[in-house]
Amino acid sequence: MKTVLIRPVSRRVYRWCRWHAVVCVAVLLTAMVSSEAARVHQWDFSPAQWQSETELTAVQGGLLAVAEQAVRIEDDSLVLDGANSLTVPGVVPDHMPRQAFSVEALVQIDTPTRWGGILGFLQDNGSYEKGWLLGYQNDRYTLQVSTGTSLVTLTSTTSLARDRWVHLVGTYDGTSMHLYVDGRAEASGEACRGDIAYPPHAFYTLGAYRDDNEFYRANGRLRLVSLYDHALRPAEVTARHRQSKALRPLPLSFSVKPSLRYTAPDAAVVEWESSHTGQGVLVLGKTDRPDSSVPASSPEGRIHRVVLSDLEPGTVYFYRLGVRAEGLLHKSPLYSFDTTLNYLRHPLPVAERGMANGVALVLGLDDSSVMEGLVRKTPWMIIGLDPEVRRVTAVREHYYKAGLYGTRVQAHVLNSSVRVPVAGNSMNRIVWNAAAPDAVPPVPAVDVCRLLAPGGEAVLTTGGSGAKTVLDTWATARPVSGCTIQWEEQGGRVRLRLVKDALPGSGSWTHQYGDLGNTANSGERLAGATAAEDFLVQWVGRPGADFGIDRNPRMPAPLAAAGRLFHQGMNRIIALDAANGTVLWHLEAPDLRRVNIPRDAANWCTDDEHLFVVVKDRAWVLDHATGERMRTLPLPGVFATSHEWGYVAQDGELLIGSAVARDAPYTAYWSGAMWYDKTDENATAKVCSDALFAYGKQDGRGRWMYRRGKIINTTICGAGGRLHFVECRHPDVVALTEGRIQSPQLWEQQVRVTLDLATGEILHEQPIDTEDGRVVFFGACTPETMLLVASHTKQYHLYAYDTATGDLRWQQSHAWPGSDHSGHMQHPVLLDDVVYLQPWGYRLADGERLPDRMGAREGCHTYVGGGDALIYRGTARRLAVWNRTTGAISSWMNLRPSCWISVIPAEGMLLVPEGGGGCSCGNWMETSLVFTPRVIDGTAEGSP
Amino acid sequence: MTPSPYRGLALTLLGCALVTSARAADWPTFRHDNRRSAVTNGALPLPLTRQWTWTSPVPPQPAWTGPAKWDAYSGNRGLQSMRNFDPVFHVTAAGGQVFFGSSTDHAVHALDAATGKEQWVFFTGAPVRLPPTWVEGRLLAGSDDGHVYALDAASGREQWRYAPVPVDRRLFNNGNLISPVPCRSGVLVDSGTAYFACSLFPWQPSWLCAVDVETGNVEGSCHYRVELQNVTLQGALLASSSTIYAPQGRSAALSYNRGTGQTLGPVGEAGGVHCLLTEDEQFIGGPRHQRASSDVVQVTRAGTRGALLSFSDTNRLLVRADRAWLHRQGRLQCLNWHRHGELADRLQTLKKQKPAVPDAIRQTEQDLKQCVLWSVPQPVPLEYAWADGHLVVGFDGAVRILDAEAGTLLWEAEVRGKVFGLAVADQRLLVSTDRGEVIGFAR
In this prediction, does ipTM exceed 0.90? Predict the structure, then answer.
């Protein structure tokens, strides 16, 4: 389909035309002709315009553009895959506009890169900079023009986002440049004057940044690209933007973004809610051109569920979602999943779907019905132990024939009557049925209790005369600490239950930095462990490096509560049993990703029952045990169409959220520029919220909303019933529509605000004027103290406020330890009565500096606290432990964390889900594991 | 003429590198012999037809997940695994039997080579990641439970088991209870001694062991149990007459004095678990690092452990006598190996010369191109074997046999999944796939 763009007509002219029809036709025709005459070249990428798989004729200008390789066209758009582009041969500067020009594109750029081009004719070689380019740098669109010796660059405020179409126009009229995104002027400049300066030779290239020594191809799509020999006026840009909407593929609008869960080794379920009512469909394939349609199981509606079956192992699948409404098919972007990451080895038992996965230990194999029942009714791994070799052999052979041995059932000979040779605190369930009234379990009660994971339960059943006495004698032979004992009697059967208590001194890591206060400390004491050798490996296994995003570039930290460990990877979440590494569930959510957390808030938090996950404009409430989505919470209505859910936290019965402008959170991760380690504005712009609000967790009803300035997400923290943050009330900043703010005015007219967490009422607020936190600006608090940390110009600045009055209690500054690899962006650790910020610790009460330096960090991690230790990435970039009391440092060879926080002390252990994989360098183990303090494991000294 | 550093030693070492008492028709250990050459002189008459298929109810469960999907910082995609030593149930075969260990059911299996019927199953306490080594009617297999087991090949009866340290605290690993020092090296047997390593966490002690094949006894001459620090030994061991080579996965392989177990040092800079020793004791290992392109397979002079040359854009090599086969730039190639080595060495020297010698460099580069004896378009191979003048190649979804000297396709068959395992024994081709199938092909 050829596209005709007409010169825009103002509303007033239009009204006039209604009364002067004859004259109007003449005006429109004149406008159209005028516009056509002014356009130098236009490229329409719809199939009809292609002469061959590689040759495209311009609909205006007659030029032939040649692709590097066969192109792929979808929905009338050219798919750019990072390996292809088009260049028009034979173009010389004389063919180009000289005094003024406009370049227009309807484009979707999926992957930010340091340098990227959409249409250009330039050379940028050292100090030799000539020509022009409509393109992008990192995640911002750019217009570059040279009228002398250098290219002047305009940069958009809108960031490019995967699967998002934008209408871009760049203009130059001889004195000023303008860059428009979706009809809105986002940047202007007058640094260029006079004729455009062209190089004698350049490449007229579509879909790439190309000059003599650089060639960066784009990832995304092109629908329409035009070059004009005059500067389009704002009204013309607006009109073209409006017209361009008709050319964009019909997008599938979601109420709830899609998610995928595996339900069997070869099956998965995809669910989403569309904004339109219609018949849902999923198109699936093994290439990025999926072609096999699977209808949604539900009839026409907005809630869609597609069951995928016969999936092959170790295979990457691509899919698009669609909803057919009123005869039109609305299609989603292309998504993918990799069945390598489906960890299910057997279908879940149908009757017990919804039950948490885990490990059950069966003591004694003389009664085969115990194991059979568990196999039939639970999804658990079932491990049998028996002193008799023949019984173990029988179980092995039986379940081997059933195809279940090893991956559902295991059996081992128990050679000890004292201790099961297995890591302590690891079993979710232990079952023993007495074979005779005088029988007792094969190991002592102390060991049964030792084996149980926190919250785990041993069910020991006996019966007959005197059986209870026998079992009671067994249970009380030695004091059993750490378990609660309960007796039940029913129908002649006696049941003894041992329920494992939480590990002493354990804490839950419920928020990005441990708790609502951002203390980087969950209260976990690690049983006094302060050195690597104080720990034993509890388990090792999944997920591995294929789960994440290359060192998880400053992604949200793992969370842990109620014995479960939650971890994010590349648009996916995995839930693990912290005690034994069992995969509880796994959810793929294509719109989940959030990075550069030092300049934003994390997208999740948890309590003991639910995981709260923010996906674009909603918070998903997921069941801890199964991952089932219990409900979703939308943004407050006033923000429904313009914003996303930003900050998320929970406290008591409240779920707290914030509204950030759409696309404000960082999501780009490709290239060194997306490491967010530099101090430029692209890395350090702060994500700010326009409002804070609270919902009731149980009823999902709104409780309160606070809305005034631009709230800096990284400063939001709470403790003791108060919520603290810093907001900017500078009118120019408040008026900004974007949520990722790099304006210098962000550091003016700042106010530190304290709200009553329960009601949202302002308790107190004070204007503050700290050093600018241009690199990072963190808030953290205890019930008594709110701390602000600002970093820039090679210094950290700490400010401690009294949370009751808001008064500044003390402030300190010190040099940051380095300007890269997170040396300049460390998050403070508030542990006991000290705040640690590399390299120093200060007493929270009065700011007095402690005499000893912290263990020296290397690499891009940040410190976390646990008991008497700080855990971090130390010398040789290994995972390291610093003893706060003695200053001793120890480390684990070949273990590295992610580039922010992937190691958390919680649930009585040190949890290390894999986050460091991706570096081409190093000997790193690239695996998940958990360390348990040696003193609480209970097995032999000296065991590895 | 100066003797080539790539010759010599070869024939004297060849004999000691073979597993004791195996017949030419056997495939008694992982990749046939202790050099892991995957080369056999046994016959393989063509054409072949599928005789039987043994299928596991659950696909192999490798010890490690795949590598990261990309190095986004550096812009590298398609990273390679450096630890995929157990993607399939690799097999060994001797005396009309086929043997393999299972990472899913923790057992050593014996099949009738003619019918594929299961003869016996021996359960260990944890996954068995490499196939048992056959020696004089005895099988030796290592398990993640920390033990090495000796079994009677005919009956599967246990003869002895050995663990270097008591396993008094097992820990969970993807649902399995494993020893903190699992045996993931396989068992290498030579001259009555079984060599193996028990190792996992580099911050904890590992063990290199040499025990008596008959008894599992660690006492006696040339037997030892050596405690090692800061290592993570995994993947099949290799051996020359004097040296044991132990891959480490993501770290450089290590070498040990075969007689004492004492550490000799790393072998070049190559990581990876796809390792082989050539007849003239060059150590070939890779992928050197996980980048998809750049130098990925490195050749090292084993004696001095100095790097000789590296091959970019390839994932593995097969070397037999003066021929090597590899895949580069979409083509399967046969190289004149010795000539190629000499020229590559010469080129290195020339490039360091001052003043520069561009003409000599250009000529040598031209000569290097002449070392390619044939080259045919093929997808990326996952495994090679050489038998009876045939180059057997495993692919994703297929196995093919080419004339090793001419490159012409002689035979092919489709299979389900990726063919990471090949063996040739008793005129049969045994194929292992990542779907958990072991397939017997014969004429």
Answer: yes
